């Protein structure tokens, strides 16, 4: 099996995919040849294969200094694409129960306007040695701007305004913007968000890489996986190009269904699904088009939404992420009295039971309920696989969006609520 394999046999006939072969080849050629009208936003494609060594050294050097200075916590301040990728990776490697500890703990702030959350986060770090990575291309987004002001004030109170700059890194535009000007005035270290990479495509830039380096995640393996995903996308045969097969399958299913439900059988993928949701919703949800994308964790949610998937209105298809080999497992063994009636599982692992739940659910949903299921099989959930999946879905998204006939790189609808909010805030001042 390939490291990532897409099985559409529970969703579509292969002939439904193959009829898009010529159209996909043309889109691929236009993207790689920079012939699309949005070519100025294609910088993310070659990132895994062309990492800036000087920038990588700078990130590693800063992280190394902070570790030597016993910084315990890094406050990553950003919203949307400025934090979703790094949080997805952090939760993936250091899940809730942390089988291994990060070099520097990450907490993610500035992604809501909840006063309660902000107060709690400030309280959490007030007696810790912490640093700040504030991430914003413009520096005008209100959620991270408010959070940065408050964390900066706390840090300056802790170590003094003169030394606070040693614990702040701004990831921002290379030459303009409010955050860029603030960083220059305060003499903060800066990392650059490339001009040709949009926020939701920025996980493999310093936006995502720097926090992960601080945490001690192996970003070389991450980038290696992403580079291999890129290479695999050069094969234009839709039977073999797994990312493009997925893109075409979801596009074909969108003709009949309004919702794509992405499900995983591993809780540590929950926030990866949040990253995926933004990638597809913000890229395709325009011009009255686009699948409504949502996520779920099985088998947990089979005990809540499983009923409506099985017997409810047929408005969705499922995309399932399933891992063949866990990093950790437990072998079940029989007990003498078998009071809990589990001895029939003797010799099986917990992961084997999890895979059985997956197979049973796949049959129930696809064959009994007639809910189409795209299955994305992943060999092993390590850093390499995560990097592969990041690039896999970004490459799939580009094909999917152009098949849909929308610009994957803008988000005009997001600006409307911001404009209304600022009008309300200004009115309240008068």
UniProtKB/TrEMBL annotation:
Does Ligase appear among the keywords? no
Gene3D superfamilies, sorted: Glucose-6-phosphate isomerase like protein, domain 1 (3.40.50.10490)
Q: Which domain of life is it from?
A: Bacteria
- Similarity field: Belongs to the GPI family.
**Primary enzyme class:** isomerase
Enzyme nomenclature, EC number: 5.3.1.9
Named in its record, the pathway it takes part in is:
Carbohydrate degradation; glycolysis; D-glyceraldehyde 3-phosphate and glycerone phosphate from D-glucose: step 2/4; Carbohydrate biosynthesis; gluconeogenesis
Any idea what this protein is called?
A: Glucose-6-phosphate isomerase
Q: Which residues cross the membrane?
A: none
The record, for InterPro entries, names: G6P_Isomerase (IPR001672), Phosphoglucose_isomerase_CS (IPR018189), SIS_dom_sf (IPR046348), SIS_PGI_1 (IPR035476), SIS_PGI_2 (IPR035482)
Give the residues annotated as active site: 282, 418
**Compartments where found:** Cytoplasm
Q: Give an example GO molecular function.
A: monosaccharide binding
UniProt keywords, alphabetically:
Cytoplasm, Gluconeogenesis, Glycolysis, Isomerase
Is Disulfide bond among the key words of this record?
Answer: no
* Principal subcellular localization: cytoplasm
Q: Name one GO biological process term.
A: gluconeogenesis
- Pull one GO CC term from this UniProt entry: cytosol
Function field: Catalyzes the reversible isomerization of glucose-6-phosphate to fructose-6-phosphate.
- What span is annotated as the signal peptide, if there is one? none
**PANTHER family, alphabetically?**
GLUCOSE-6-PHOSPHATE ISOMERASE
User: What Pfam families does UniProt report for this protein, alphabetically?
Assistant: PGI (PF00342)
> What chemistry does it catalyse, as a reaction equation?
alpha-D-glucose 6-phosphate = beta-D-fructose 6-phosphate
């Amino acid at each position: 099996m390939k490291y990532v394999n897409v099985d559409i046999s529970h969703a579509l006939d292969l002939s439904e995919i193959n009829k898009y072969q010529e159209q996909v080849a043309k889109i691929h050629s236009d993207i790689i040849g920079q012939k699309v009208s949005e070519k100025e936003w294609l910088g993310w494609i070659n990132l895994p294969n062309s990492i800036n060594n000087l920038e990588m050294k700078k990130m590693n050097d800063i992280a190394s200094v902070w570790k030597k200075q016993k910084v315990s916590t890094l406050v990553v301040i950003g919203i949307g694409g400025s934090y979703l990728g790094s949080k997805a990776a952090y939760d993936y490697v250091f899940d809730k129960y942390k089988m291994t500890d990060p070099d520097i703990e990450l907490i993610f702030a500035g992604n809501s306007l909840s006063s309660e959350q902000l107060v709690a986060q400030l309280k959490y770090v007030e007696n810790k040695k912490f640093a700040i990575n504030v991430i914003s291309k413009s520096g005008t987004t209100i959620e991270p701007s408010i959070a940065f002001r408050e964390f900066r004030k706390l840090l300056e109170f802790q170590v003094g305004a003169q030394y606070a700059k040693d614990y702040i890194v701004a990831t921002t535009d290379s030459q303009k913007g409010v955050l860029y000007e603030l960083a220059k005035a305060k003499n903060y270290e800066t990392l650059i968000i490339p001009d040709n990479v949009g926020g939701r495509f920025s996980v493999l830039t310093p936006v995502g890489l720097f926090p992960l380096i601080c945490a001690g995640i192996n970003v070389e393996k991450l980038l290696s996986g992403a580079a291999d995903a890129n290479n695999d996308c050069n094969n234009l045969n839709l039977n073999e190009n797994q990312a493009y097969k997925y893109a075409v399958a979801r596009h074909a299913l969108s003709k009949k269904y309004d919702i794509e439900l992405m499900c995983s059988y591993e809780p540590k993928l929950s926030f990866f699904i949040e990253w995926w949701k933004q990638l597809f919703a913000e890229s395709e949800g325009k011009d009255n088009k686009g699948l409504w994308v949502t996520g779920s964790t099985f088998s947990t949610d089979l005990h809540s939404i499983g009923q409506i998937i099985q017997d409810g209105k047929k408005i969705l298809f499922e995309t399932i992420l399933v891992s063949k080999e866990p990093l950790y497992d437990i072998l079940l063994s029989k007990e003498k009295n078998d009071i809990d009636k589990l001895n029939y599982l003797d010799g099986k692992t917990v992961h084997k039971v999890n895979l059985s739940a997956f197979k049973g659910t796949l049959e129930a949903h696809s064959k009994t309920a007639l809910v189409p299921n795209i299955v994305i099989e992943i060999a092993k959930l390590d850093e390499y696989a995560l990097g592969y999946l990041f690039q896999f879905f970004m490459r799939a998204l580009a094909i999917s969006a152009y098949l849909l006939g929308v610009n994957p790189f803008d988000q005009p609808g997001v600006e409307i609520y911001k404009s209304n909010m600022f009008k309300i805030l200004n009115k309240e001042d008068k």
